[in-house]
């Protein structure tokens, strides 16, 4: 793992690392699914219940994408019926504070329709 540091003094308008991260997180529902995993391992149905308006097909695809990106891992438990849960990897957990900071920003700055 590289330990590159952000150089705020010489900040350039474009950073390929930032762009790649935003491509990864910018996929529809990706960051929302990751946020749902911040509390620990959860099952597919728990994520589906936590993320309203997301189809099961899209959730399944997003979980596959996030697993391929190395942000989550899928655990299969050989029980009857088979139990599958998802958890953040170390790489995914490292995003936790970023996601929580974004959540805090949203609470402070985003107004939802119908809010006073």
From TrEMBL:
UniProt domain HTH hxlR-type: residue ranges = 15-114
Query: What domain of life is recorded for the organism?
Result: Bacteria
Q: Which residues, if any, are the signal sequence?
A: none
- Keyword terms: DNA-binding, Transcription, Transcription regulation
Query: Where are the membrane-spanning stretches?
Result: none
Entries under InterPro entries matching the protein: HTH_HxlR, WH-like_DNA-bd_sf, WH_DNA-bd_sf
Which SUPFAM superfamilies does the protein's record reference?
Answer: Winged helix' DNA-binding domain
PROSITE patterns the record matches: HTH_HXLR
Q: Does the keyword Chloroplast apply?
A: no
Q: Which protein is depicted?
A: Winged helix-turn-helix transcriptional regulator
Q: What is the organism field in this record?
A: Actinomadura gamaensis
């Amino acid at each position: 793992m590289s330990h590159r540091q952000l150089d705020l003094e010489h900040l350039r308008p474009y950073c390929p690392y930032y762009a790649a991260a935003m491509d990864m997180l910018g996929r529809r529902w990706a960051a929302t699914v990751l946020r749902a995993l911040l509390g620990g391992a959860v099952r597919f149905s728990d994520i589906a219940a936590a993320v309203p308006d997301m189809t099961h097909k899209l959730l399944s695809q997003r979980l596959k994408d996030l697993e391929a990106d190395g942000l989550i891992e899928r655990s299969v438990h050989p029980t009857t019926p088979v139990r599958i849960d998802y958890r953040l990897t170390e790489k995914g957990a490292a995003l936790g504070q970023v996601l929580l900071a974004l959540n805090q920003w949203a609470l402070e700055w985003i107004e939802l329709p119908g809010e006073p």
